[in-house]
Queue: 2 jobs
Job 1
Amino acid sequence: MNDRIKDITYDSLYKTFEERIAQLKKLPKMREDDSIESTIEKHGFSRRDFMTWAGAMTAMLSLPATFTPLMAEAVKVADRLPIIWLHMAECTGCTESLLRSANPSIDSLIFDYISLEYQETIMTAVGWQAEQNLEHAMEKYKGRYILMVEGGIPVGDTENFLTIGGHGHSGKHTAELASENAAAIFAIGTCSAFGGVQAAAPNPSGAVGLSEVTDKTVINVPGCPPSEKNIVGTLMHYLLYGTLPALDVFNRPKWAYRLRIHDLCERRGRFDAGEFVEHFGDEGAKDGYCLYKVGCKGPYTFNNCGKQKFNQGTSWPVQTGFGCIGCSEPNFWDTMGTVNEPLRDRLYATTFSGLGADATADRIGVGLLTATAVGIAAHAAIAAVKNPKK
Ligand code: SF4
Ligand code: SF4
């Protein structure tokens, strides 16, 4: 794209965002006594921190830096989008990772600020009153609310393995009902996106991902847990655009899941040089060598962990010395092999069922991916022969 066309495109996008924010401003403010500025200030963040966050979020969504003030404006109206968050069969790890941080980041404070109309972990209502709140929220915000679902959903003969509340509704029933009038639907975490650990063979509860119980489009934000950046980024993307983001073949937003862990990894130079950790605790481990031979599944996994990191952006698994286990891929419990062993050449066809992982997200087909998988194994073997001390 030449610069002039790019400018025209960005100009019209800027205007679209301005109009969208102006429309949202007209909706009733749900938190009369609060603002994002006072929320972050209470937790010791300055305006400068907030603008730095807005700049980073703008870059993460692949927008030019000139959009930063708009991003900051968009957060201010985030409370206009009511959110209903349902818990299905899961460990609540996604909620915990987002909301229960001892030192909340600006991302988690945005979740404090938005209008979470229903969220079982943090709401005070229980039993009948909780159910009533859910029904009320679905009715009051019909067609306007964002539905976020955490957890796998048992279906078939085992549907009632997940039965919630005084009315004894199954999780499937509640998820279907809530999906009907949602403006947008996000499956938060690998369980909700693909079934997760509940769906691991032999899947005794018959758990499936949310997209299998609704015919509406579900945006999958997988990870075990997904980073707070990917959750908040998906929300901010919807807030600004008012439409669904570009998705890969597994309905993951391309802005977050377009590249492989391996492509963004700080140890990639070690991989290319054939420098591998052979055993945890060896000299290579101390020197930050590549973790492929001790099981890293980064070459087969699409996510942005190496770039966005966890815990307020401080670290991520590979940085700490443990390989990626492939948690944002469908059925990773069954298809990613033993945690501390490399996959070598035995995996691709089964992992991706011939679909390809929409690698990078469109450039590499399954054939090349398979070749890459074999190539990785061969590379590791050749490197070991050439460099026997590693
Ligand atoms: S195999 Fe893992 S540790 Fe090695 S470069 Fe790739 S992602 Fe990084
Ligand atoms: S590094 Fe791999 S296993 Fe760890 S969170 Fe990211 S995608 Fe999941």
Job 2
Amino acid sequence: MIIGIDDTDSVDGMCTTYLTAILIDKLKGLGDIRGLPHLIRLNPNIKYKTRGNAALAVEIDTYPDSEEQIVNTAISLVEDMADMDCENTNPGIVFLIDQGRNDPGFRQDLESFMWQAMRDVLAVEDARSLIGKYGIKHKEFKNGRGLIGALAACGSVLCGLSDHTYELIAYRQPGNFGTPREIDRESVFRADRETYPGTWDTVDISNNTIVFAPHSPDPILFGIRGDDVQSIEKAFGIIGSEPAGLTLLYRTNQGTDFHLLDAQICDVLEERSYKLTGTVVDRPVTIRGGHMFFTLKGSGSIRCAAFEPTKGFRNIIKELIPGDKVGVYGGIADGTLNVEKIEILELAAYEKTSNPVCPTCGKRMKSAGSKQGFRCKGCNTKSGEVVRTTMGRGITPGIYEVPPCARRHISKPLVRSAEPDVYPSR
Ligand SMILES: [Zn+2]
């Protein structure tokens, strides 16, 4: 059986990953958990979403006659723990019992639904229609929007993903919920130094801050993300903190860029994320608050933004000039692409023109009038061509990313794409 759960969390403290960790604990005795639980980040650009837009799924080999008990355990746990008073919390639970094993049509439908949940905008009706078509056991609360993520997370378990990473989440002991987290900052930087790039996005070196622990009142103490389970466990051993309660390792789609669609600029839609290619039209401008904007032209044109929270990333953006050919990655909101990564493909030549120097007396010549060349005021020497100087550019072709403190969970850090000898410098 595969159990998918989504949308039980709220800004006030509950978190679907924690609920899943508790559920796994409660299911001992009713079946054997198979593999790791899956933590799936859905389309990060959706307007109606819970904080991180994470959905969870867990696979369990049931014991004889334990199915009903498992279903009831999961439902009553969600009833008990989900923050039902929060307007934005609309839990959904899905149980794949017989579906999928021998039905390629179902697997195909579920897989395509999962990709839509990561990249597109789905309605609860889309989830209900899939549930109805295959008679899937489920339970929904309030408007039932959680059914979307619950199905998508089941899809990840049943159909697999072409790329994945891991996150070890350490939860707080319940007595500490809501109090400031005690984490030994220096040990976190040390853990990063000793395990990067097997782990990543634990700290943000350029902004001198740790980024692997939330500031909200939720049950998470911290989460260590990475590609390599051994490195993650090593980092966990190095980090000093208040005593953790439950800890659980998840298989995730974090750091995969699965949210990105390829498209032409003229075809982009709100609430989706894209990789777009085009030519820079104007010099980036900075508005109050430090947000930076420029226009990209291809098949149509689009405004691109590097907002203040992207910090030093704006130092790359501000060097762009008209004519630069770039690829931008990011989500669309209000007609603007919020840049997560930029690939500088080709830099435009940047020339400065100046008046020639007089060959006789070495003084800078003045213009002799429109199309009249130049004249030296000192000795009256005429002529001379305008001098063109190719200026150096403050950037070089390559791919650049926002710092870890500004990165979305699902966005792929460059360190994951690079060969070991060309890891981006930090
Ligand atoms: Zn002269």
